[in-house]
Amino acid sequence: MTFASGPVRVRVPATSANLGPGFDSLGLALGLYDDVAAEVTSGGVRVTVTGEGAGELPDGDRHLVATAMRAAFDLLGAQPAGLALECVNRIPQARGLGSSSAAIVAGVLLARALVDDGAARLDDAAALRLAAEIEGHPDNVAPCLLGGFTVAWTEPVGARAVSLPVAEAVRPTVFVPGERGLTAAARAALPATVPHADAALTAGRAALLVHALTTAPALLLPATVDRLHQDYRAEGMPATAALVAALRGAGVAAVVSGAGPTVLALTEVPAGFTPGTDWQSWELPIDVSGARVARGRLGHAERDPVAAGRKS
């Protein structure tokens, strides 16, 4: 196995998982991006971070991009002596917008691109399986890799996913709070079992959500009803729960984004609606391409830590 000479770079989108009733299976790629570049070196792992998480994220092999790269290199067949990583982060950390999945996908794809025949050794299906294994579930890594609206599931061999086109009328808005959330804490709030009626209702709404997002956006409000996870997590995120309720009361198809605390609105927010001073609202396009890899270092535009085109 030989390593590619020179740097490679990848742009990875933010994602919103669950989308209400699609717990651990449905996800949406959003037009907010992290840019990461990597290069093989003679020794050690050096990571520089600009933007979100700068000065907070671990360095060296403990950085999640580097961890994912090491896992991918194991599958590819060899480890490089060293790595230099440059990360320009725009996806908020620990807010329910897939920052960890973006880092994992970036690492897997960068490692593959740094091996001369990496795509033959680790194809897209295998990259998805590895990313989902590292993350623990496929609902965020699938849209990050594939773009668009994804349905993901896990078989004995690992994760699989499909990407579906989204109706043009779907225009997401995210409401991002200053406070952070922890996925582990949000999962700990979930009960071991739920009533059969709640499971049946949620399964029906998840099926309807696929139709609503791809064909009939007018049905998004009823399609985003959930009884599996959001109510159980509400006590730990009261401001998030209150904002979801207020938006839905105004006729907006709003849900908790991933494990929260960000709120995702899938339909137009009424003019004059104010979430409060603790929230930033961003209108984001749907990313239809997923992660994109290229040769070379990050350019001036990629090094800008501000999210270009983000409306607030």
UniProtKB/TrEMBL annotation:
Its EC number is 2.7.1.39. It is found in: Cytoplasm. Keywords: Amino-acid biosynthesis, ATP-binding, Cytoplasm, Kinase, Nucleotide-binding, Threonine biosynthesis, Transferase. This is Homoserine kinase. SUPFAM superfamilies: GHMP Kinase, C-terminal domain, Ribosomal protein S5 domain 2-like. ATP binds at residues 92-102. The keyword Transit peptide does not apply. It comes from the Bacteria. Pathway: Amino-acid biosynthesis; L-threonine biosynthesis; L-threonine from L-aspartate: step 4/5. One of its GO terms (cellular component) is cytoplasm. Residues 226-267 form the GHMP kinase C-terminal domain. Catalyzes the ATP-dependent phosphorylation of L-homoserine to L-homoserine phosphate. One of its GO terms (molecular function) is homoserine kinase activity. GO terms for biological process: threonine biosynthetic process.
